[in-house]
Amino acid sequence: MKIAVVGKGGSGKTTLAGTLARVLAQRQQRVLAIDGDPNPNLALTLGMSRADADSIRYIPASLVESVTAPAGSPTLRMTMERDRVLSEYASQAPDGIQLIAMGKPADGTAGSG
Amino acid sequence: MCASHRAVRGLIAEMSGAGDHTITDMEAGLEHMKRGTARNVETMLIVAEPYYRSLEAASRTFSLANELKIPHVRVVANKVRGDADRAAIETYCGQHVMPIIGEVPFDETFVAAEQAAQAPADFAKGSPGLRAIERVADRVMALHARTAS
After folding, report:
1. Domain regions of chain B by residue span
2. Which of A7, B53, B60, B122 could make a disulfide contact with A11, Cβ separation 3.0–4.6 Å?
3. What pLDDT, in 10s, does the model give residues B8-47?
4. Is any Cβ of chain B less than 8 angstroms from the Cβ of A2?
């Protein structure tokens, strides 16, 4: 299943996403957690330590390129295969969860809650 | 929208297709979403708090998610502090025909978990909040069991 969690800042969206990931992983589901928030905070609610959260490698936007077909509008294409992205960028979280993060740490506020 | 921002969204869409089970913590708001960005989303959980502005935002997101043809769009009522909160959310969602998949109570244990820099899943075992999220998980799994091959 592919789940997206959305909500206003402060709604508890990240806490719900992280906790739901843990609950599903504890039910023997292999879960890939994706932090797509520009102010990434999912690691802590997944149960990673601050030290581990601080050592996450963020996936650079340069892994996507814009391709324009002769008669079409531009589409985005990844320049690295998904499996390789996972092996190079995924961090391990509790219960076997893999975490990848796309966001850029916001200055001064990253990890503040 | 700047090119790198668009690229990040493309990456999220692409990586949501990796593995059997993915959970994506998305950027607030859906205004940026296009069909391509949403193609790997089967269930969208809209987290709403029991006050009017939050519910209004949830309603906008709900409409956009339906336009994007996301198969299952559900509201999670969060930080519910009692019957009045529950009634507010249920009334609003009823009027706007938004299905609620679960209600998570406001839980001091979650606040304490955050202060201790720990995950609710570790710190708040057995708490009302965690039990409510377990019920949300049950229902999400049931949605997918119904639609799986």
Report:
1. 1-40, 42-147
2. A7
3. 888 888 888 887 899 999 887 666 677 677 888 999 999 9
4. yes
